[in-house]
Amino acid sequence: PVPQAQQCAKEEDMSEVHRQEDAKVDLEAGMYAAVLVAAFGGVRIPLKERGHVKIHPIFLFILCVPLLIAQGSTLFALRTDLHLVRPVYDDSPASQQLLRLKILMAMILYCMNFKMLANSVQLMFFIMNPITWVEIKNPTWNQWGGSLNGCLPIKLKKVLFATPLIAPWAFLAVGMKLLVAYLVCTDSVSVIFEADSIKEAIFNSLALAFVMDLSQSWWNCVAHVFHLSPLEEFFFKLSPERVWTEEGNIKEERLRELFFPALMKCIARITNIRIGAVRTTRTFLSRGAGARRVENFFALVVMYGICKRQLLVVLFAINTNVLPAARDVCTQYLWHQGIGVERMWQFLLHLLARRAEQMLVVDVKNEIRELEFLKANCTIEDPKFHRMTMEHISQMEAEYIWLTLPFSLALGAIFLGPHLLYAFHGTLLPPKTGEEAETIDEDQFAELDSLSVKASNQNIEISVLKQRMLDLEKKLGSQSGV
């Protein structure tokens, strides 16, 4: 009989027959990203001479919970430790000068966190794309578990490792990352504006950067303790020949592996339209047929909204001379008093916030009650510390139209301009001439030589591994004969 480790290895080798492509998904190593990688079988525990064991994303998601609790508790403690009644600035020239430097520091910190925030939004759309779970290479039911494949019955594996029980954990983990990144960006305004000097603002900014880096540090700790494979070695793989027919339909053998084959077939047929200059017969939700452009476009639209709101938060803080964190804490205080939860969406948001508060290591209700300024200033009659509403947003837009309009136009041009030019460059640029098509610069030649050397070295390693496999098979054959 063929050992279970060799059987699993042969099944994975059969899946490598088709040409593999890089899906070009930007991924930052961290605990939250590890859950997404695990959903596609990328987090493994190597076993000496016994293959490997793939880790189900639910186990890594469970380890994300203490990370979220630590980050949330730190942000809340940092928020309540601020002097919330302190004005943003006064009329003195020194305060006006310090305010300009604080605004500059807020912009710098936002730029530092921009990639993490944008990457979280992009990964959210990547996960929500249903075709992602069709064409991105992921383990089959038989491949989950690696060398421990025979420990679970096939019916149980079909349930545990089905997409509906794997995708939600990746979605929730990336959502946690997005939530923390957004909270850091919003709280950074209050932390910097509350500082007495630019030196203090810089050190406060480093504290927020520390909160963001906890995900990477926690993942390094978990990976070392459990001997998990590095995330840097993983990339999302595509195999178009394995999934798509020439007519742009999903192949029948691939449909048989899916949990909802009829639904995926219907989605692929309905979305089979051309996007931009991409010439393909596949759905535009497929990578290489428009999916990257669509996901990036919607991600940039979301980032545009976040950046615009951050500008309005800063303008509202300067206009009212009140820290944004003071409004957030006041809103929490009113919610605990049962005020401001009359509408259904307000009640649901309040209920979700209360459940999240109970998970923190600090007593949120007691901490808020001990803030003296809330009892005197945070009332339903006095709107000074109430949160920013749509009426306030319209007021800021009209009062600072000289700033908001150019900012919106410049931000739209910076975000959407390069993306649209890249998406439609095939129709905008003239076709190449014969001389241009034959021209390859020296850097490309050097890169090709480097890749050729790497390929030859990998071929040598493959030959060595094949020889070891043959020796192992002989050894196992002699043992079975005995």
3D structure, described in words:
The structure is a single chain. This protein has 482 residues and is mainly α. The chain is 67% helix and 2% strand. The protein contains 21 helices and four strands. It has helices spanning 4-15, 31-39, 57-80, 93-128, 132-135, 154-160, 163-193, 198-226, 240-243, 252-255, 261-270, 291-320, 324-336, 344-359, 364-369, 372-377, 390-399, 401-423, 425-428, 434-438, 442-481; strands spanning 21-22, 44-46, 52-54, 237-238. The strands form two sheets. A two-stranded antiparallel ribbon has the order 1-4. α4 packs antiparallel against α12, α7 packs antiparallel against α8 and α12 packs antiparallel against α18 (401-423). The chain is elongated. 26% of the residues are buried. The model is unreliable at 1-18 (pLDDT under 50).
List the helices and strands and how they pair.
Elements: H1 4-15, E1 21-22, H2 31-39, E2 44-46, E3 52-54, H3 57-80, H4 93-128, H5 132-135, H6 154-160, H7 163-193, H8 198-226, E4 237-238, H9 240-243, H10 252-255, H11 261-270, H12 291-320, H13 324-336, H14 344-359, H15 364-369, H16 372-377, H17 390-399, H18 401-423, H19 425-428, H20 434-438, H21 442-481
Antiparallel strand pairs: 1-4, 2-3
Helix pairs in contact: 2-3, 2-7, 3-7, 3-8, 4-7, 4-8, 4-12, 7-8, 12-18, 17-18
Overall pLDDT level: 77
Strand coverage percent: under 5%
| SS element count, helices | 21
The helix/strand class is mainly alpha
- Series of secondary-structure elements, N-terminal to C-terminal: HEHEEHHHHHHEHHHHHHHHHHHHH
Number of strands: 4
What spatial form do the alpha-carbon principal axes imply? elongated
Strands side by side in the biggest sheet:
1-4
Task: Tell me the distance between the termini.
Answer: 14 Å
- Helix residue percentage: 55-70%
Which blocks of ≥5 consecutive residues have pLDDT under 50?
1-18
Biggest sheet, open or closed, and with what strands and sense? 2 strands, antiparallel
Radius of gyration from the alpha-carbon trace, in angstroms: 27 Å
